[in-house]
Design brief:
By secondary structure, the chain is mainly α. 60% of the residues lie in helices and 4% in strands. Helix 3 runs antiparallel to helix 4 and helix 3 runs parallel beside helix 8. The radius of gyration is 17 Å and the shape is globular. The two termini are 12 Å apart.
């Protein structure tokens, strides 16, 4: 199914913008306009689209989880999250089918990973974990940025401050994809890798998610 012309024009506009922006970043406030454009169509598959887009973004960076330097029981959590997200999206399972212990492991196991030191869990891996959990939440029906104040979004909060399970998956995924290093406690990102991610997201991921959402009817 083709993306409606007005929405496609908006996507094209942001593609040009992210290419000319010195930081090559696509802020949450810009993505909200894209999401709202799709939502305004009143398409019954909107939530399926949002969920699939989240899954695609998380899978784009899942390989960064291999940066995990130690192994313990939580080390498969992003894979488990995305497996459940996929099965929920496909309709193979319902939320009530999922054992409460799994949600417990996701919440507390994932939390312990995110609070680990940089030496234990590199930043790119933490971002990947957040992208996976965000994708799962989107599939479960949460709206993008549901856990954030709308004013924060409109004021242009940076994506690195939005890496959370309550974002839109793309925030965390873009950070994982472009992360370089941490110097004196400050995370450094590669603008060219950031551009590469957002070009993929705008040119490929959106259209793929839209098409898949309408195949799954």
């Amino acid at each position: 199914m083709e993306i409606p012309q007005e929405t496609q024009e908006l996507i094209n506009y942001y593609l040009k913008m992210v290419r000319t922006d010195p930081n090559h970043d696509l802020l949450a406030r810009d993505r909200v306009k894209i999401y709202d454009s799709f939502k305004a169509i009143s398409d019954p598959q909107y939530q399926k689209f949002i969920g699939r887009l989240g899954i695609l973004a998380a899978h784009k960076v899942l390989h960064f989880w291999e940066l995990l330097k130690i192994e313990y029981y939580e080390d498969k959590i992003p894979y488990q999250m995305l497996d459940i997200a996929e099965n929920l999206w496909q309709g193979n399972i319902q939320e009530e089918d999922i054992d409460e212990d799994i949600w417990y492991d996701f919440h507390y196991g994932g939390g312990s990973l995110l609070t680990s030191s940089e030496e234990q869990i590199p930043s790119a891996a933490k971002f990947t974990l957040c992208a996976a959990e965000s994708a799962l939440n989107l599939v479960r029906g949460l709206a993008p940025f549901q856990g954030f104040n709308r004013k924060q979004i409109q004021e242009g909060i940076r994506n690195e401050l939005l890496y959370s399970s309550w974002g839109d998956s793309a925030s965390s995924a873009s950070c994982a994809y472009s992360y370089q290093s941490t110097v004196d406690g400050e995370r450094i990102y590669d603008p060219e890798k950031r551009l590469e991610f957002w070009e993929w997201w705008l040119k490929e991921a959106i259209s793929q998610a839209w098409e898949l959402a309408h195949q799954n009817i």
